[in-house]
User: Which sequence fits this backbone?
């Protein structure tokens, strides 16, 4: 894909391409400007991620066993534990070829993944290794299944089992139904009550979106279709039964990285990754458009800074990460609109149609 000259010459894009944030530069070259991974400029930007900025600072704080801070608190130490560092590394574009990144993934597979089901748990077993089965939750499983794929574990049988867990146990109850009494995780009211947790759905879809379409099992495809429809039914961030009301007001404050939380920008990216082009996304797209500043950039409106091992950008200031993702989402929305106007796309929700692979992460 060759970028339009106007995109390549945009001063905001030039700002994103500055060398101070190599992760943003790398992703901007690949997504907004469409350069292939083989391009020298892309390879140089990817290599720089490990050399300067947040990624080397995070890796410098790693324990020898692949964990961070207190190994047993890999999840509960928010947001300095091992789970959260792995998610941040994946978001920033760290390389899975780095042995330190690999050690972090192996640590979580050994301590968080339930060996019986493949789901990821917030607590390790006291004996026998692996995650405690009774503490497996969907948002964590989705987050780690996504991060592991991005960081080079795609195709690993252990990650395949996590993806199968998502296809088996994600639910999309909307206040009218609830899991049956014999449901394996019925004790998690917050995740699986009469209204399924948005975060579990979003992070599960995020993980499944990373699986190439040709490799998705029938169960994965069914889960993706149901999950997309669930989010579209809610117009991304609204009440399904009263769409004039915002169900997730916090999701209108754009941030990065989102950790177990989310916002309309992340959800839109995931839905687009899964091929969705639906008018029920328009309200969320308008939230993104309205957040654009007069200079064409977006601010970091929400952050967990102060709780991280290394802070990422500054709250209230222009954010390269939010700006990059907002431009990606709006670029794809505009392309989808042009396709519709040219008669190249139908009007059915794209969740029920063949879906393309995700943008590079």
Assistant:
């Amino acid at each position: 894909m060759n970028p339009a000259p106007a995109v390549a010459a945009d001063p905001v894009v030039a700002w994103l391409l500055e060398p101070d944030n190599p992760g943003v530069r790398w992703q901007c070259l690949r997504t907004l400007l469409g350069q292939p991974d083989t391009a020298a400029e892309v390879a140089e930007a990817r290599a720089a991620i490990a050399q300067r900025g947040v990624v080397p600072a995070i890796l410098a704080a790693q324990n020898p066993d692949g964990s961070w801070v207190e190994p047993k608190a890999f999840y509960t130490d928010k947001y300095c534990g091992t789970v959260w560092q792995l998610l941040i590394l994946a978001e920033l574009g760290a390389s899975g070829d780095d042995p330190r990144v690999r050690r972090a993934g192996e640590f979580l597979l050994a301590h968080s993944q339930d060996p019986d089901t493949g789901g990821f748990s917030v607590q390790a077993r006291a004996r026998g290794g692996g995650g405690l089965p009774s503490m497996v939750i969907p948002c964590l499983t989705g987050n780690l299944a996504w991060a592991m794929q991005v960081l080079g574990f795609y195709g690993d049988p252990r990650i395949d089992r996590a993806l199968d867990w998502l296809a088996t146990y994600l639910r999309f109850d909307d206040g009218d139904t609830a899991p049956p009494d014999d449901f394996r995780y019925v004790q998690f009211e917050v995740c699986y009550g009469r209204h399924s947790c948005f975060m579990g759905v979003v992070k599960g879809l995020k993980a499944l979106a990373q699986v190439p379409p040709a490799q998705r099992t029938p169960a994965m495809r069914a889960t993706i279709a149901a999950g997309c429809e669930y989010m579209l039914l809610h117009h991304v961030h609204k009440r399904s039964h009263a769409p004039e009301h915002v169900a997730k007001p916090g999701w209108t404050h754009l941030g990065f990285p989102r950790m177990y939380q989310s916002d309309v920008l992340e959800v839109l990216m995931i839905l687009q990754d899964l091929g969705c082009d639906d008018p029920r996304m328009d309200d969320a797209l308008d939230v993104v458009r309205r957040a654009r500043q007069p200079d064409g950039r977006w601010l970091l409106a929400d952050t967990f800074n102060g709780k991280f091992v290394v802070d990422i950008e500054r709250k209230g200031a222009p954010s390269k990460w939010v700006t990059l993702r907002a431009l990606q989402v709006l670029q794809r929305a505009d392309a989808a609109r042009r396709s519709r106007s040219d008669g190249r796309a139908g009007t059915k929700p794209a969740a029920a149609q063949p879906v393309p692979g995700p943008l590079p992460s």
Notes: The first strand starts at residue 238 and ends at 239. The chain is about 45% helix and 0% strand.
